[in-house]
Design a protein that fits this description.
Length: about 150
């Protein structure tokens, strides 16, 4: 009888340990909330006085989310675009996979700053507010780089 009780106790402890390992501990696989950060953000020095592009990578170490809006004091309007067949298309929202990344890069997804309120110079920092469906607002800065800057060549 003691043997059965000891075995039952061992099974119960093992089950608790396994369930604890599956709980939401904030890890990439178990996180129930998005955990977003922004890296490598930049804006090429605008060639036109009324619009500019912006690029970055949004890193998500948690649950899936969606980028649903953006704004900046630099522009009257900031929109998300995607380049398809060398044509820009407005995108209302961008999915960010759980434990994944969303890239904004030349020739692909990018931000468009419309009706600039001032002309940024190389070295300036441009504030951007990103709004997400679940995570709320994330503020970041894009450093203004030379118009020909390419992070893949740096």
């Amino acid at each position: 009888m003691r043997r059965r009780a000891a075995l039952a106790g061992a099974i119960a402890l093992t089950s608790v340990a396994l369930l604890a390992g599956c709980s939401d501990s904030g890890s990439e696989q178990g996180a129930s909330e998005p955990q977003l950060s922004v890296r490598d953000g930049y804006m090429p020095k605008p060639a036109l006085k009324d619009m500019a592009g912006g690029f970055m990578t949004i890193v998500n170490k948690g649950a899936a989310d969606k980028l649903i809006g953006m704004s900046s004091p630099l522009a009257d309007e900031v929109m998300g675009h995607r380049t398809v067949d060398q044509k820009m298309q407005h995108v209302a929202s961008f999915a960010i996979p759980a434990g994944g990344e969303l890239d904004f890069e030349r020739g692909g997804n990018h931000l468009m700053f419309m009706e600039l309120t001032s002309m940024p110079k190389v070295g300036d920092k441009v504030e951007v507010e990103l709004r997400f469906e679940k995570a709320g607002t994330v503020k970041t800065e894009l450093e203004v780089k030379d118009a020909t800057y390419n992070p893949k060549n740096s």
